[in-house]
């Protein structure tokens, strides 16, 4: 039987290793758009980068509602769904700082600066999601 994760458990789960998130944004026609992302937690916020002109960047500029799913696809299975509202920043220093930290998580410390330089440029956004709701279950197949 599935068990609800505690606050500490879901935070550890989504921060473990290089798990990607599946981000859902709202298209102009009201339909969903889902894409994988690299991300970090910063306190009670979820942070990631995207291009201003990407589908998700345009969606977020118009409608900041998001949902993110992070899962473990190995038995006994687990998942966390985060829902919230995004705030966008084009401050290049802030974008580069977070792009570097995210690069460190997913590519390793030795390549962090490379990814920060590549993704911390004009036209890129820092997305900060204020998490409003968490659904977190472990042992789904138990």
UniProtKB/TrEMBL annotation:
One of its GO terms (cellular component) is cytosol. InterPro entries: F420-binding_dom_put, F420H2_bilvrd_red/Heme_oxyg, Pyridox_Oxase_N, Split_barrel_FMN-bd. It holds the Pfam family PNPOx_N. It comes from the Bacteria. The keyword Oxidoreductase applies. Residues 7-134 form the Pyridoxamine 5'-phosphate oxidase N-terminal domain. One of its GO terms (molecular function) is oxidoreductase activity, acting on the CH-CH group of donors. Keywords: Oxidoreductase. SUPFAM superfamilies: FMN-binding split barrel. This is PPOX class F420-dependent oxidoreductase. It comes from Streptomyces himalayensis subsp. himalayensis.
